[in-house]
Amino acid sequence: MTGGPFPFPRRATEAMLAWTGARIEHGPDPKHGAQAFDVLEPVLGGSITREGRTPDEVFGLFTDTIVPSTRPFGHPTSLSFVASAPTRAALSFDAALGAAGIFAGNWDGGAGAVHAENQALRWIVDMAGWPDSAGGVFVAGGTLGNLSALHAAREWRAARIARPDRWAILCSTEAHSSIRAVARVMDVDLIVVDAHETGRMSAQAAADRLESRVFAIVANAGATNCGAVDDIAGLADLAETHDLWLHLDGAYGLAALADPVMRPQFDGIERAHSLIVDPHKWLFAPYDSCALIYRDAAHGAAAHGQQAVYLDTVDKNHFNPSDYALHLTRRARGLPLWFSLAVHGTDAYADAIARTRQVAETIAAGITKMQGLDLLLGPQLTVILFRPTAMTEDEMIAWAEGHRRSGALLCLPTRWRGEMVFRLCIVHPETDAEWVLNILKTLTR
Ligand SMILES: Cc1ncc(COP(=O)(O)O)c(C=O)c1O
Question: CATH number for the domain including 399?
Fold first, then answer.
């Protein structure tokens, strides 16, 4: 291939691959972070011209301006939001996958990729204790996964009861913001159940708010802000009694299925109808990837899929990922997880997730021993909420910003029961508990 109207020297490709290799080897710089528009515009504004520029010049914009002005989520000191911790295997493979240019929307376009992705889905299905009928697809993120699952849920329920004036989803106060966004897109109401003080929704609290127009219960399998896992077994009973769909939002938390110590928290999962888990969160895969799985894949296929005359030749007898979510074209975004799992083995995954739990336990225990810090919650999975007793909100924000800028620690405040608190969420197996505790000591002075 010559490049036709788009010549590109081999030397430039090699330079980019060399940078890629070094970046994967060394990881992100913890001092990097967002820059203001006024800083970026003079460099990146006008970077697209009629005549074009040399690859070195433009790639230089990427390495010297774009990358340094992004948050280093993959660094072991990045403990806010839900960060990410892709393995070097997954990152290396992702670069190769990009070069392969595979269309993985259907079997015709990406049979081998789709088959391998389904191996990774099968690992999750087996951990959930779901039958052979289970299946699904990797979508871009948890928001799209939740939307696709809840659309399937409503179709399923609509086939069983007369359509109410308004449909509703039942979830807890700790449900992720994406559930509210999904309800808006689907034009359905949300019935929001008060969670217990730990952030957990009980089956009784859900039963007390249940209405006949509800088509799905969404259970947190690891609430983002507090790590709570709802009473999945109790909610499965409730769903069974009322013939409702039970969806588990485990975008963050369901990775913990791999750890035998945390696994019992998800008892009842075997009776849920759908789940999501984001490999780009706690399953050591790069952005972006969400595993959306139906216990009975046929329920996903009944709700999704696109028909068009130009698609009539597509092989309908094989597994077509586009039949299971709201999308058609897709990259094989489950393959970096597959590659990393296949290289390292599932035991290494179980060990790495158990290690993050132990790091969270060590940090929480250290916080309880420090005068001037109150441990409020956790670890729940690997989320910890705590508060410095003698700091104002402004001081907390300034402390967090100082440590973010220096690259020492990304530990940002959140709110818990209306009060500003610090939140840590550990997903990186190389996070060093002693390092974190030494920095937290500066909160007590
Ligand atoms: C529990 C939970 N659900 C859903 C989402 C949405 O996922 P995404 O950002 O991948 O769309 C997130 C986080 O982002 C989450 O933590």
Answer: 3.90.1150.170
* Number of domains, the chain: 3
- Binding site membership of 224 for ligand 1 (Cβ less than 6 Å): yes
Looking at the fold, whether 192 and 295 belong to one and the same domain comes out as yes
Q: Which of 138, 180, 218, 252 to mutate to test the pocket of ligand 1 (most atoms within 8 A of CB)?
A: 252
368 and 353 belong to one structural domain: yes
Q: Answer whether residue 167 is part of any domain.
A: yes
Quote the CA–CA distance of 182 and 179 in Å, as a whole number: 5
**Which residues fall within 8 angstroms of residue 178, CB to CB, at 6 or more apart?**
142, 143, 146, 147, 249, 251
Q: Is the pLDDT of residue 288 over 80?
A: yes
Q: Looking at the structure, tell me whether residues 258 and 173 fall in a common domain.
A: yes
pLDDT the model gives residue 445: 67
Atom of ligand 1 nearest to the CA of 224: 16
- Cβ of residue 227 lying under 6 Å from some atom of ligand 1: no
Token pair of 116 as six digits:
């391998």
Q: Are residues 146 and 290 in the same domain?
A: yes
- The response to whether residue 141 sits with its C-beta less than 6 Å from ligand 1 reads yes
Name beta bridge partners: 378.
none
Which candidate, 60, 57, 64, 9, places its Cα nearest to that of 39?
A: 64
Strand-pairing partners, residue 171, are 192
Q: Is 425 in the pocket of ligand 1 (CB under 6 A)?
A: no
pLDDT at 3: 83
Ligand 1 near 225 CB (within 6 A): no
Are residues 257 and 338 both part of a single domain?
yes
Same domain, 325 and 381: no
Phi, psi of 143 (to 5 degrees): -65, -50
Q: From the CB of 143, is ligand 1 less than 6 Å away?
A: yes
What is the Cα Rg of the chain in Å? 23
For the stretch 41-98, pLDDT in tens is: 999 999 999 999 999 999 999 999 999 999 999 999 999 999 999 999 999 999 999 9
Query: What are the tens digits of pLDDT across the range 138-159?
Result: 999 999 999 999 999 999 999 9
